[in-house]
Amino acid sequence: LLFHRPAPEGRVRTVESRRDMFKKILVANRGEIAMRIIRACRELNIATAAIYSEADSTGIYVKKADEAYQVGPGPVKGFLDSRQIVDLAVRIGADAIHPGYGFLSENAEFAELCQTAGITFIGPSPHAITLMGSKVKARELAKQVGVPIVPGTEGGVADVKDGLAFARQAGYPVIIKASAGGGGRGLRVVRSDAELRENMEAAAREAQASFGDGSVFIEKYIERPHHIEFQILADRHGHIIHLGERDCSIQRRHQKLIEIAPSLILTPKLRDTMGEAAITIARAVQYDNAGTVEFLLDQDGRFYFIEMNPRLQVEHTVTEQITAIDIVRHQISIAAGKPLDIRQHDVTLQGHAIQCRINAEDPKNNFMPCTGTVTAYLSPGGIGVRIDGAVYKDYTVPPYYDALLAKLTVRGRTWEETVSRMRRSLEEYVLRGVKTTIPFMKAIMQDPDFLAGRFDTSYLDTHPDLYH
Ligand code: ADP
Questions:
Q1: Does any ligand 1 atom lie closer than 6 A to the CB of residue 370?
Q2: What is the tens place of the pLDDT at every residue in 63-102?
Q3: How far apart are CA 84 and CA 321, in angstroms?
Q4: Nearest Cα to 299, choosing from 231, 350, 223, 367?
Q5: Would you say the CB of residue 53 lies under 6 angstroms from ligand 1?
Q6: Where would you find the membrane-spanning parts of this chain (predicted)?
Q7: Given the CA of residue 184, which atom of ligand 1 is nearest to it?
Q8: Residue by residue, what is the 3-state secondary structure of 76-117?
């Protein structure tokens, strides 16, 4: 810890007298999500402390937090060093830590370490994190409580023979999954005995190396499903609600690129059924705080639970835009022990929202991550436009982190209006000096299939002209 930048003088603080809310939150993350959390804290009059690496010291969140502390060593380790972060929180008098997404957000030991040090972890219990960190365990739980899961192996498969037996019985293609995998990593689709043999051991080895857990399992590969996920809010008093769904089917290599809310294909009845299933799963782990229950919806309208993410998600913005509910604000108040002030019937979905991930990547070159200095920056504005960004003119994109520069979210009354608003916003966006996904997103907004709502998880594979 090398530097400490004190809070700017003269800022009005009214929190000292409030006992039921945190006074200072340490934001254990960087980039756009650190900004998002700082914004929520500012509205709640909670002081913020940022952490940053030397490589990231020009990050905008470092300037916007009330205090900022350099952690290390190197660009990444400081963001992953539980002990260093908890010690810092104690030293600076923070009473809670928000982990954002990625980094330590799904690390049960970190959540426990916070607890032991008397710091509130803004997220679910270590128990829920551990359980949901294992896809195998999460599947077992879903099955126990009667929520449909994708047909697959019972538990992990250690032996290729067992894998082959399942695949032959279920029929190819199947997908090999790392139990501890996430972010689209640790998935392998295989279409024959030979491919399964080839991939199973490699998958286990890779899972061990990447996630510290070599267990893999196999699911039937569902052709052309929609990825539908439900946003959950649960307090510490047993109230659980959902905020409707997001359709995150526009993916590249199983990673989300565009997210929309609500889904264009769910009927109100199916929404209720899937929402109830999501709540059932959350209840089964005595979940509290914000979380997301993910499903696949097949071409015949059948849904299957795939996993639950026990954290804030990148795409939470689209839900906020159609519900007018601030998810981060609720995360904070739930962690402070307050009961939910919204009931299920208070949640209404209004209009449509789309989020495009503006990544520093070259769509024409296999989405290769790009670095560089932003030489001109002007974000779009006007009705229904929201930017969650971490980028400004003269900002140099560091090569060490994910490529997400900004999230552009728009909302509109109808789907057509929302798509045209997104196209207009992308056209307005000036971001020079680094290659970004903006041109690619623009092409999608003009694609007749997208406009007609004809897309599922196969969309990018079936529309290669959009990025070649
Ligand atoms: P991760 O935790 O890495 O995000 P998920 O299990 O959530 O992995 O799956 C990510 C994506 O992979 C899904 O949104 C979907 O597109 C695809 N996928 C996962 N499981 C299946 C399956 N059984 N059949 C078809 N596609 C799948």
A1: no
A2: 999 999 999 999 999 999 999 999 999 999 999 999 999 9
A3: 36
A4: 223
A5: no
A6: none
A7: 3
A8: CHHHHCHHHHHHHHHHHCCCEEECCCCCCCCCHHHHHHHHHC
